[in-house]
Write a structure and sequence with these properties.
Layout: H1 5-13, E1 31-37, H2 41-51, E2 58-61, E3 77-78, H3 88-99, H4 101-105, E4 116-120, H5 123-138, E5 144-147, H6 148-154, E6 169-173, E7 177-178, H7 181-194, E8 198-200, E9 205-211, E10 214-220, E11 223-232, H8 238-242, E12 251-263, E13 271-273, E14 280-283, E15 288-299, H9 307-320, E16 329-340, E17 346-349, E18 355-359, H10 369-382, H11 396-399
Parallel strand pairs: 1-2, 1-11, 2-8, 4-13, 11-18
Antiparallel strand pairs: 3-7, 4-6, 5-6, 9-10, 10-11, 12-15, 12-16, 13-14, 14-15, 17-18
Helix pairs in contact: 2-7, 2-10, 3-10
Length: 415
């Protein structure tokens, strides 16, 4: 079924009796060409495998329900304002895929390119943002360096004269914005299923079938499933899952909290980030302020956080826009982040033939979803990395070719 305005009109006349389920719910087959573990980036990979590369004998295994992982536990921001040559072209590729996503999957994902503002609070930081903006332009992205006067016209409610963190200006990416996270999962799932991909929910992988150094499939709570190729795309559970194959990854799992306030009248023009701390905020279509900050400072697999981080995030918000102190918090939640030690991801083959890995997304997982899925599908189909993901190798630490985007990784100060 293809969605359209005409379809909505005709269904309204017929009592909406013609709508079908978004995706099939089959039982797993004994064997597949490719098994994908994880239905976030993995669902995007399944879509591109089927639609772009014509590989449709594919199963996506999700240990919970579709959207229960990080794909449905984030702050919905999309952007490509990175600096390094290994990352900026990749995230710009992802942003271009976001711009055509709804037409590609025939589903309303509520892609809203309202822009993203990175505030700067000192002259050296403004210079660093100018450098970043130039790197973005060299990669084909958009970037505008705003002075204080122009920023005041856009956001007059910001605390420009804060004694500790005066706002000097901002780096603005007009094409950045937000996308409804669960709609992304639903749209990719609907498209992949219609192309023949099997989506198996509530199917946890409990082991890998490895024979003579070759991965032949997986063991699951629904029985063994054979495959020529297996790829793990499970975000914060990456270390736990890959340990079942005897692998130790250069990542740590941390909790990242997110928050939503009560509904307010429209006030934010787009996404705003604090340059002197870690705070980012946007406003949902329902009016709630959606915001977050730093990861919790300890390793965890729990999808919940702690109060010290709540305090730190709220302090960052108050430093930027004190008026939010009057808003009431509606709800909060946590997602699992697989933090690499150089702040950049992995899309690569492992040393086990037939086993592939996608992970280490740190704070950049949701915004990377389309490009991550496409590049993973490209690697599986062609046995070579996509040009924009060529640097995301698992062995880059051993080779001394780190992609040090943040210079922070997870929490190296705690080691």
């Amino acid at each position: 079924m293809r969605y359209s305005a005409w379809k909505i009109f005709t269904e309204g006349l017929s009592g909406n009796r013609g709508w079908t389920k978004l995706w099939r719910e089959p039982e797993p087959k004994p064997d597949y060409d490719i098994v994908i573990i994880g239905a976030g980036h993995g669902m995007a990979a399944a879509h591109y495998l089927a639609k772009t590369f014509g590989i449709r004998n594919v199963a996506v295994l999700e240990k919970g329900w579709l959207g229960s992982g990080n794909i449905g536990r984030n702050t919905t921001i999309i952007r490509s304002n990175y600096l390094l040559p290994e990352n900026e072209p990749f995230y710009e590729f992802s942003l271009k895929l976001w711009e055509g996503l709804e037409q590609d999957v025939n589903f309303n994902a509520m892609v809203s390119q309202r822009g993203i503002l990175n505030l700067c609070h000192s002259d050296p930081q403004r210079d660093a943002f100018a450098r970043r903006g130039n790197a973005m332009k060299l990669a084909g992205a958009d970037a505008v360096l705003l002075d204080q006067d122009r920023l005041r016209k856009m956001c007059p409610y910001l605390d420009f004269d804060n004694a500790r963190f005066p706002i000097r200006g901002a780096l603005w990416q007009p094409r950045g914005g937000t996308v409804r996270h669960d709609a992304v999962a639903w749209g990719y799932a609907r498209s992949a299923s219609s192309l023949g991909v099997d989506i198996i929910q509530n199917c946890e992988v409990t082991g890998f079938r490895i024979e003579n150094g070759i991965c032949r499939g997986v063991e699951t709570t629904k029985g063994p499933i054979g495959a020529r190729k297996v790829v793990a795309c499970v975000a914060g559970s990456s270390g736990k899952l890959m340990s079942l194959a005897g692998m130790r990854l250069p990542i740590e799992s941390h909790v990242l909290q997110a928050f939503v306030s009560e509904g307010l009248k429209p006030v934010l023009p787009g996404v705003i980030t604090f340059g002197a701390g870690h705070f980012y905020v946007s406003q949902s279509d329902k009016g709630g302020l959606v915001f977050g900050g730093d990861i919790d400072g300890y390793n965890s697999y729990a999808q919940r956080g702690n109060l010290p981080v709540v305090e730190d995030v709220c302090e960052g918000g108050m430093a930027v826009m004190p008026f939010i102190g009057r808003a009431r918090l509606l709800r909060m939640w946590g997602g699992l982040m697989d933090m690499s030690m150089d702040g950049s991801p992995f899309i690569d083959k492992t040393h086990i033939e037939g086993l592939y890995f996608n992970g280490g997304w740190c704070y950049g997982g949701f915004k990377a979803t389309p490009a991550s899925g496409y590049c993973t599908a490209h690697l599986l189909a062609k046995e070579e990395p996509h040009p924009t993901a060529a640097g995301f190798r698992l062995d880059r630490f051993r080779r001394g070719q780190v992609i040090d985007e943040k210079g922070a990784g997870a929490q190296p100060n705690l080691h």
